[in-house]
Structures are given as C-alpha cells and as structure tokens.
Design a protein that fits this description.
Layout (H helix, E strand, L loop, with lengths): L3 H14 L7 H10 L2 H7 L4 H15 L9 H13 L11 H13 L1 H11 L7 H21 L4 H8 L11 H13 L1
Helix pairs in contact: 1-6, 4-5, 4-10, 5-9, 5-10, 6-7, 7-8, 8-9
C-alpha cells in the first residue's frame, strides 16, 4: 500500500493535464494512415483525454524494440489496437471527474469499485455508478462497436483482452506490447 500516495499524485497530475489536451496535425496523419472511416468515427467518440492516451500508446509502440520484429501486417494491427483499445469509453460515459474518483478508489480498493460497477449496469448514463460500470466494461463495449464497423477478429480480441490475464488470440506478443504501452501512458 506504500505506493498508493505516489499513484494518487500521478493521477491528480494526469487529471489537471486532461483539461488541456490537444491533437496536433501529426496525430491526424496517424489516424488517417491506420484507421478506416468507421474506426475513426469511434476514435472521435472518445473524450479528448482518451484520444490523447490512445495516440500516446500508439506512439510508444512505435519505439518498442519488440515491435521491430513484426511483419508489416502485424505492425499495422498493433498500431490500430493501440489507437482503438479504449473506444469503449465513449465521451460522456466516463467523464474526467468520474474517472478521477474511480482511479483514486481503485488505488485503495478495486473490490469496492467492482461492487459499484455491478450496480451501475442498470443505471442512467452519466451517473457515477454507470461510469464505474463503463470503466470495467469498456473492452467489451469497444470490441462490440468495432465489430459493428467491420473490424477483423484479431483487432476485436486485442481490444477485448487488453486488461485480461488470458488471451485466446494467435499473437500474444501484440497484446504484450499493447499492454506495456498502455501502462506507460
């Protein structure tokens, strides 16, 4: 429990940074290069802070030594998964205030937040309990929405399992890189 104050301080700093998130022309180039129109539409449904996080996750993947061993198709899949791994956090479903409170509570008791999330499934969108539910369900929501725009199975699996211990997919290296880069950002 000794690292709780450090994690809370980091999250407080992250909270204040989220108010001044901006995308730059280079970011748009990355999106156009790797995402189709349907995927871009999902990307832009996320809050700006989540967009920035996903872009930073993709940029971190570009510098990963393990990514250099991937063939071009795997590399493209990796970057797409980095850009889309949090699309299940649609704007309005997980606001800055709710996200901040959830993050602080998670640092103290994940079990409490999971219990709140269980009640959130039947709550009105925008409520704190709904935000708790979305926090834990965003991989499944994202995979479902990506399936609706025609994304391939491999991408759906990476998005769906990016917070899970198990992975039924064919390339665990991609998921490992995604997870590492997600954690870094």
């Amino acid at each position: 429990m000794g690292d709780v104050p450090v994690r809370i301080f980091y999250r407080v700093r992250q909270f204040f940074r989220s108010w001044r998130v901006r995308l730059v022309p280079e970011d748009y180039g990355l999106l156009v290069e790797y995402l189709n129109e349907g995927e871009q539409a999902l990307f832009f449904r996320m809050a700006p802070a989540d967009q920035r996080h996903c872009l930073d996750t993709a940029k971190s993947a570009l510098g990963q030594e393990a990514a250099k061993s991937l063939d071009s198709e795997e590399f493209r899949l990796l970057l797409r998964s980095c850009l889309l791994h949090d699309v299940g956090k649609a704007a309005g479903d997980l606001g800055v205030w709710s996200r901040s409170i959830i993050t602080m509570l998670l640092a103290c008791s994940e079990g409490l937040v999971r219990r709140l999330a269980a009640y959130g499934a039947n709550q009105q969108a925008g409520s704190f309990l709904w935000a708790c539910y979305v926090h834990f369900q965003h991989p499944a929501r994202g995979a479902r929405w990506l399936a609706d725009v025609g994304a391939e199975r491999e991408l759906l699996e990476l998005v769906l399992y990016h917070h899970e211990d198990c992975y039924p997919g064919n390339n665990p290296l991609l998921l490992d890189i995604l997870r590492r880069c997600d954690e870094m950002n």
